[in-house]
UniProtKB/TrEMBL annotation, chain A:
Keywords in alphabetical order: Cell membrane, Membrane, Transmembrane, Transmembrane helix, Transport
Highest taxon of the lineage: Bacteria
Family: Belongs to the binding-protein-dependent transport system permease family.
Residues that span the membrane, as ranges: 30-47, 86-105, 117-139, 145-167, 204-230, 242-262
Protein name (Swiss-Prot/TrEMBL): ABC transporter permease
UniProtKB/TrEMBL annotation, chain B:
The family this protein is said to belong to: Belongs to the binding-protein-dependent transport system permease family.
Name of one Pfam family that matches: BPD_transp_1
PANTHER family to which the protein is assigned, alphabetical: ALIPHATIC SULFONATES TRANSPORT PERMEASE PROTEIN SSUC-RELATED, ALKANE SULFONATE ABC TRANSPORTER-RELATED, MEMBRANE SUBUNIT
Entry superkingdom: Bacteria
GO biological process: transmembrane transport
Residues in ABC transmembrane type-1 domain copies: 63-243
Gene3D superfamilies, A to Z: MetI-like
Designated name of the protein: ABC transporter permease subunit
Regions that span the bilayer: 17-36, 43-61, 67-88, 100-123, 129-148, 169-198, 225-243
InterPro entries, A to Z: MetI-like, MetI-like_sf
Main location class: membrane
Organism: Arthrobacter mobilis
Amino acid sequence: MAETAVSTRPDNARRRTRTVRTGTSPAARLLERSWLIAVVFILWWVLSARSTNFFVPSLQEILAVLARDLSSGVIPDGAAYSLTNLAAGLLLAVAVGIVLGLILGEANRLRQVVDPVIHFFRSVPQAALVPLIIGAFGMGQGPKIYTIAFACMWPVLLNTIDGVLGVEPTVRRFAKVYRIPPGLYFRRVVLPAALPQIVAGVRVALPIGITVMVVSELFAATRGLGFYILNSSATFQVPETWAGALFVGVIGYILSVAFVLCERRILRWYIKSGAK
Amino acid sequence: MSNQARTVDPGLALQRLLAVAVLLAVWQVVVFSGVLPSMTPGVVEIAAAIGSTITSAVFWASLGKTMLAALSGWLIAVAAGTGLGLLVGSLPRLDRSSSILIDFGRSFPVLALMPVVIMMLGSNTRMEIVVVALSCLWPVLVQTIYGARRQEAAVVDTVRTFRIPKLLWFRRVLLPGAMPFIATGIRISASISILVAVGVEVLSQAPGIGRQITLAQQAQHWDKAFAYLFFAGLVGWGIALLLQTAEARLLKWNRQANG
């Protein structure tokens, strides 16, 4: 099933071979890793300070607005709403994706039959669903969660299938010979074996979820980070628009870093075993 | 693989059609049962809308606009991403210094930046191309860096010993070595380009398929909205298949060497 393995391949890029160079102190390494960010920050600050373009406010102004709305609770309130949607949608996607993936991974014939259907649904642009789902079900929290869940499910599903297919044939035969009951078999044999792939699928789903979260709120909402951005730009509050977009970016970054840390924890046994 | 199976096994094709039929039947039953909001169109309405859409000039014009914006943004991203990636990946010092910045960029939901870009460029195709390019840049960049980074020690030593000139090294060592990774990045970003282009159109006034979906939904033409959604999926699927085939064919040498 070469087709199903699509989304896992780029993930290798993450598992960077860390060249531990002897002789460099932690401070020097920190400096080496952070100087470029400092340069970009200072350049932006200096260049935007003299900006006369109404739509390009100075970085100082953006950060001041960001600090103001962070402390007044406007942004934290929006972030809480948005992140709740994201968490609920992602959880739903992971649950459905894993269960369906385990079933389809084991049932060879069924998988081949529904394979084109899965790939079609996976290819539907997630953002295009937003007007239909929100238009049909309203602007509330539920439709947003469903949209996120629908978009995030496919990478989890495909990766789970891939993980199930990767279970050692010997192990599979062993389970059959010893007549391991299906419940135990799924829980203790297939699921752990597929876990690295499943986690990789969730990692692919996370940025998709964040994007759909923002898009669903940019389309129509009364709360949330996307609404904050939309509302600011509609009322020409330019620094607020920039601040909102930057804040969403920072959240995206923090979530992806946090996920990698979690992944390392969850898969410690796997990484230790030195597989792959 | 599934292509092969399709030609070998007529029973499978039949069962696949059956699966689609079952899915459509379930949809129709759900619509009849009234679980979904009343405006949800049935199978027949959607099929009719698909038929009338495919013959309408508006559809082809908006498809063309979406494809053009996606393609332009994608090409810009591929050019910039490969160039930058080869540079960063082959200079370990720069690689380490830029890693946080690149990690930040790749995890940035670029569509959130769209209102800012709209303010600067207006709600048009140019803005759409910029947002698509910004989204597609990261997969290409990250994959290229990864490809350029992993050069075998033996090859590096050989290049140094024989004093291979820089240009030759670039053309015959670095580029082919990184190519499989670059290809993956290019393929991923091609899928992203369509997703983002449609997303931008859904949210803004930029013309294209996504705009048509929003317009149809706002005008309560639900059957039409679903028809456009169907075509959007079809386009995404077609591009994914096309690129997979192209990549497999172009990089045959690599698979053979590895397998």
